[in-house]
Amino acid sequence: MNIIVAVDKNWAIGKNNQLLVSIPDDMKFFRETTSGKVVVMGRKTLESFPGGRPLKNRVNIVLTHDMTYAKEGAIIVHTKDELDKELAKYNKEDIFVIGGGSIYKMLLDECSKAYVTYVDYAYDADTYFPNLEENPDWKLAQESEEQTYYDLEFYFRTYVKQ
Question: In DSSP terms, which residues pair with 155 in a beta bridge?
């Protein structure tokens, strides 16, 4: 299983249920990497998408405690057990955890690869991703050349679990 996330220099990922920054090259990387795959998210992440609609060309699996929640085009599960049963139907290499914070933390230990867009800037944030640099289980395996978007510097990094 994989994780895909954009973080700032403090490993922050969002504020008020919104991304900290929208970088076109990062969005393109996300689209290309997850297209045709399975994406796992929480309800708030789904609701943060345009129109609150599931992502096209992907199997969208949403974990929520709300037993009445339904969304056309998404598979809704309510417990970790239900999620595990649903994920067992797919090739683990085709599964991408896409947020939010609590979903990332819940599934991090089950993932073997993390695609991290690292933005070299500190934003005001209220949601964070675990700092993989400080986690001995994870190792930086690949880093792109420096990328820029206006005055922002960012890197595409791939971490692998040891």
Answer: 118
